[in-house]
Records
---
Amino acid sequence: MDFISSLLGNLALGMSVALSLKNVALCFVGCMIGTLVGVLPGVGPIATITMLLPITFGIDPIGALIMLAGIYYGAQYGGSTTAILVNIPGEATSVVTTLDGHQMAKQGRAGVALGIAAIGSFIAGCVSTVIIAALATPLTSMALLFGPADYFSLMVLGLMFAVVLARGSVAKAVAIILVGILLSTVGTDLESGEERLTFGWTEISDGLDVAVIAMGMFGFAEILRNLEITQARDVVHAAIGNLLPNRKDFKDSAAPIARGTFLGALLGLLPGNGAVLGPFASYTLEKKLAKDPSRFGRGAIEGVAGPESANNAGAQTAFIPLLTLGIPPNAVMALMVGAMTIHGIVPGPQIMTKQPNLFWGMIASMWIGNLMLLVINLPLIGLWVRFLKVPYRLMFPSIILLCCIGIYSVNNSPTDVVMTAGFGLFGYALIKYGFEPAPLLLAFVLGRLMEEKLRQALVISRGSFWTFVDRPLSGGLLALSLVLVIIAILPSIRKGREEVFADAD
Amino acid sequence: MRGEADTRGPVKSPLDFAGGLFLLAIAVLGFGGAFNLPTGTLSGIGSGLLPKTLAVLVGAFGVLLMVQGLLFEGDRLERWHLRGPVFVLGAVLVFALLIRGSTVNFGGVLGIPLLASVKLPGLGLIVAGPLSVIISSFADKDTKLGEIAVFSILMTVLCGLLFKEMLSLPIPFDPAGLIPAPVDDAYVGMKSAIGHALAGFKNLLPR
């Protein structure tokens, strides 16, 4: 009972912070922008958060993080709208929704599909907010038991997960993570003060900026890629119809929503972007459990309700590793680390003890944000459909201008803008050579922390590498990483992996 | 790289082979940049240990991919398009050069002597904005010049209002004074009128 009462006390504190007029407004702005970028294919949360970082400079850290978080989970809501109406995933996580969602739309049930997606997402969002709140305290106290060696091994595990979950060749995924860590060593070495990999260029002696890399690889390179694919936009012209699902729809969806929420929340906790797996896992599970699996792909409501709940639950529980351990589990969270650093917050277990307002305020804002998203998405659906009609030939130059202004404003530096263009080209090359860019960003952010912990651990152990194996926690995490690598290389699993991602293409 | 998209020759998977080559280039660059740094000992790691180790590993994966590309059938290389990168990245560079004005040095890094230096005036968002929108729009062949010209000015004004007026970011808007004085005066007058109106409205609200 003590646990429950302290949980309720903490949530009450969070509500008091999140319900201030200013924070509610920021949460609303974040959710609106998030929905917009979710709806628009080709604009992702990574580029958007980078673009909007400078806007948050004038806001206090709590408000800034509430808004940025809103963009992230708002995008998950918006992504389903595009998936259902246009048959293009607005976000990577709504790929599965295109399968049955668009079929429902073709059958004149677009409104019901949108409705159940929003309702499922809302339920998932509420449940995972409670999960975050409940897990935060025990995980934070666990984090305090972590020594440098354990932290290092945990990050290795996270990166190995990213390898397993990346599509395409395992060797390429590992290599791109190594490149990400290599990039993180650019700049002045904190211990010796020596310049590393700067080639005498003073502009990068402070290291590369995560915003520059993110914007180049996810803003510009993404545009370059989109310009080369001509996507047929299969917009549903029929009326959207009734938004509220009927009694039978609710009965069919209740269990998938519950299972999807649980699966998504669990996978979202995993380091290395487990959240992307949620919708796939949920879809597969529903298809297996269904009495008549042949309905799937032909407009089964379970195929929308489950995955949509899973992706929203995963998007929210992905905050747990960041907030409790200080370790970002995916590229968006890696960017949140950058945002926190700009605002002078060090992510990690100390946030909860030292800045309970920030911690619980952010969690409470997620619940408020989910409620807002329900309102933003359902009655305003006509507005978002209109945005879908903006042609790409006008959209991408606008994105480029906004990116330029955003990246310039981070440090008021034209050099940053030039470097971003460079990373745009780098990202384009990566795509052309078949590398996936997201793990690089994660590795880049983890790289600095890994080097720091590696050094600390080796100083403590007086130069013995055995410390990583001897410590039970660290040893266990490394063993798990090894298992993951073996699994990734095993041919049978590789085949399964390809099947999962084949749906995505 | 363009030639490889068409011919296979002895390389069975051009995609993997080229990817490996790309990694190898990164590795060489990384190792070169850390060449003079001390590796230190295990109990006191030097600044060079991690970059060098990583560079070697990246290089090893590069070689692995190249060998894989020679031995196993795989995907062809995707063609590199010039139009997109040239116009999109060109637009970004134009923005960077004009927004605050900058001195462009040719040479002066990596041991190359300074060959030439060009000083560009700071023209601010009023010029850099429309230019970057228009230049980047050429990356798409569907672009209509009239439409994009109007759109670029509209976007620039909107961005000016949003970032400069509402969020007061220190981005230069019109440092060279290119906006004609009457327009400027009219804007300032309108702004103060709105300000007064808002202040009046605030006074009406109960405290």
---
Amino acid sequence: MTTRNPEKVILSLSVRLELDLVLARKRARQVALLLGFDAADQTRISTAVSEIARNAFVHAGGGKLEFSIQDSKLPYTFLIKMSDSGPGIANLEEVLDTRQPASGLRGASKLVDKFTVDSTSSGTTVTLEKKLAPRLPFTGSELDGIANSLTKLISANPTDEVYQQNQELLQALEQVSAVKAQLDLVNAELQQSNNELTTLNKEMNDWNKTLEEKVNERTSELQQMNVYLSAARDEAIIANELKSQFVANVSHELRTPLAGILGLTEILVNEDLNGDSKEMAEHILKSGQHLLSIVNDLLDFSKLSVGKSELSENEFYLSSLFDEVVQSVYAQAKKKDITVTDSVAPELSDCFWGDSQRLKQIVLNLVHNAVKFTEKGNVSLKAACLSQDNQATRVCIEILDHGIGISESNQTMLFQPFVQIDGSTTRKHGGTGLGLAISKKLVEQMNGTIGCESKVGVGSRFYVELPLTKLKK
Amino acid sequence: MVERIPILKIGETLLVTIQVDFHDRVALALQEDLTDKIVTHSSKGVLIDISSLEMVDSFMGRVLGNIAKTSRLLDCHTVLVGMQPAIAITMTELGISLQGISTALTAEDGMELLKALMSKKQKRVSHGRQIARK
């Protein structure tokens, strides 16, 4: 009923101590006075409030007392609401029964115009209503005035002031306990999320452990594998050395009988033989010489592989070295109608100091190849100076041809041993496939580099860059 | 800290003036103190001045009633004085009847009443003795 009508609260206080009862009835009297009730009504109201407040204090340990006014509809009323959160009034009808001995509540009901009790097992609210004298609705300033007067009335009495402060403290306490309840709730939530996090963390830890174990397992597997691999590698290296040594020995053994065959065949060729026999003997000689060159290549390569080859040093001129090379391929080039040109940069005309034999072998091999793979056109051999200081002169020797060219993918395999680009070319051009590999090893031994640029059908450019020492005069 | 209401002894009577907040514990303490004093001083009458009391509810009414009944049992009369009219109205409406309590409007009237009550009693006692002598 009271909740339906908008009320203007004048004062509310909590009843917790016995002393609060005194305060409650004093306040009731003061509010009644300020609202214009006469002395008798003031006493009635004060007494009724005392009754309901005591009832709440005795049965529910206290509660909240609220004074308010209802001035939204006639008749305007003064409302006093005492609410507690006790166990409720079980025998409400009996308590209010007029035939029963007088009780506080019933007494209170007789002193006011309207008396309502709303009692459940979770609390009881007793509402008293007292009609106000006919008047205009209360204004805000009027209500403020009442509130101010109440404050002043309190200040008049130090004891009351203490009570009032006590009241305020209690209200603050109530708020604090509400906040605490909220905090507890939040705390509980935090605790829960903390638990969840802990669980998650544990799972993560477990997972980490598993991961670590797996990694360890893999690592040990890898280590084992590494051990195997390095053993295999050592074996392979040893085997390779053995192979090279074997090849070197065998080649050496092969050369001796081959030299015998060649010597005797030469003598035979120079003998007076009839037509067919002479031709056959010449074939034998050619094949033998070819075989010898192959065996020599093998021997060279094997020596280089096991590092047995040593560089010898002597004086030489690049221009005369080039002339010798050109001379060597002259016959072959002439047969295919190819011109071979050579040029040496003027700053390289000095006398050099180094292994001219090896250098010649490299250049010859490259020029030989150039002639071999060129069908027509020309082959040029050039020497240029890249840089020059007191210590060494860096020289670039390049061989250009107009041959069949080498595809890009094949260029990478070019300097591998025993690699010939195409079986068909081998049959056409011959060779062991060791030439470039040997050249590469020799150049590297001389602290140089060897390389190639080529375009299929256009031609190739092979170059050797290496430091040479000028002989000081 | 229970406030105590002072009890003054004047001859055979005890004088109680309630001038503090008459809350429940004070009321109960008064009942006890008063009983003790009646016995200690062999008082014959109690005058309770409630002129500064602003209200009397069912509990206080009961306590005042109990004081009167108890003192009566201890051979002592109780007179309540100075009740404000509004309280009288309220008490009637509440249905509190102070049976066994004599009332007077002022303290002076109250003392007179007490004297009268006590002398009546003494008369009755002397009368009794006279009968016994006879």
